[in-house]
Structure formats: structure tokens, C-alpha cells
Amino acid sequence: MIITSQIQQNVATIDENCSTLDAAKLMTDRYIGSLVVTSAYGIKGLFTERELMMSVIGEGLKPEDVKVGDVTNEALVTVKPDADVEQCLELMKKNRCRHLVVFDGEKFIGIVSLRDMVALLLSEKEQLIARLKEYITG
Fold first, then answer.
1. Number of domains in the chain
2. What is the spatial distance between Cα 42 and Cα 62, in angstroms, rounded to a whole number?
3. Domain of 133, in residue numbers
4. What confidence score (pLDDT) does residue 21 get?
5. What pTM was computed for the model?
6. How far is CA 131 from CA 3, 85, 119, 128, in A?
7. CA pair distance 47, 91, nearest whole angstrom
8. C-alpha distance across the termini of the chain, in Å
9. Contact yes or no for 14/23 (Cβ under 8 A)
10. Residue from 39, 28, 31 nearest 8 by CA
11. d(CA 124, CA 90)
């Protein structure tokens, strides 16, 4: 199943010079687990709950003193908008991440999360069950 329908295009962004406290507040306000970090040159990377916990809180640092850009995961794991769920899940497993950045060539499209992939898989299974029921009873 292609991921196109699950791509979050209206993503939350934060400038690399903002504090990780600002990032945590933004993620809390929007009930999300990641932010796209921007710089003067474009997209710098992703800041996730994991970076907050491991690189800031886990290191005993004060979130108000640490800039997002200093702890941003810059190793973007990217996919194309026509990628399928299995490819995405394999990339997430291989790279131990829960978010993928979607690019169409050089153009940033959005992000997909593990939660999005689970939703697609469930939808696919429900469609299969409906078809099988129809086949059996039809």
C-alpha cells in the first residue's frame, strides 16, 4: 500500500536557534512527537521526543539553555511519496527511527510516522477482511 494518503504535509517547524524547551512546548501544544528543524539554508533535520530525552534531559541539561539545532538529528531518513508501507517500516527498523521525511526529488513534501504506517496497515487489513466476507457470503 502506497503511503501518499498518510503523508503529513502541514508539519510543525522550528528554527534551529530556538531552545529545546520551546520545541517541547510546541510538541506538547500540538500533541506531536517531532518537529522539522529549519535553518537559513532549508531543512536541517528532525527534532523528536527521543532527542529531547536522550540529548537534553538524559544528559542533565536545562532545556531552556540548549538550542534545537545543537541536538537535531541531521541524518534524515527519506522516502519518496510513492513508497510503500513495507519499505517505510523496513527503513524505520533499520535506522531505529519512528519518522521519515518525504521528498519528491529536491522538494520537501512532509513526514510520515510509525503511527501513520500502522493506520495504513490496519486499513489494508480491514479492506481485505471486507473483500473476503463479500466473497464468502456473495
1. 1
2. 27
3. 4-137
4. 97
5. 0.82
6. 21, 20, 18, 5
7. 18
8. 25
9. yes
10. 31
11. 18
Q: Which amino acid is at 69?
A: G
Paired residues of 106 in beta bridges = none
User: Which pLDDT belongs to residue 123?
Assistant: 85
Residue type, position 27, single letter: M
Q: What is the pLDDT along the chain (138 residues), one digit of tens a residue?
A: 777 777 777 899 999 999 999 999 999 999 999 999 999 988 999 999 999 999 999 999 999 999 999 999 778 899 999 999 999 999 999 999 999 999 999 899 999 999 889 988 898 888 888 889 888 987
Q: Which of 42, 3, 32, 17 has the alpha carbon at shortest distance from 124? A: 3
Supply the CATH number for residue 117's domain: 3.10.580.10
Spatial distance between the Cα atoms of 16 and 29, rounded to a whole number of angstroms: 19
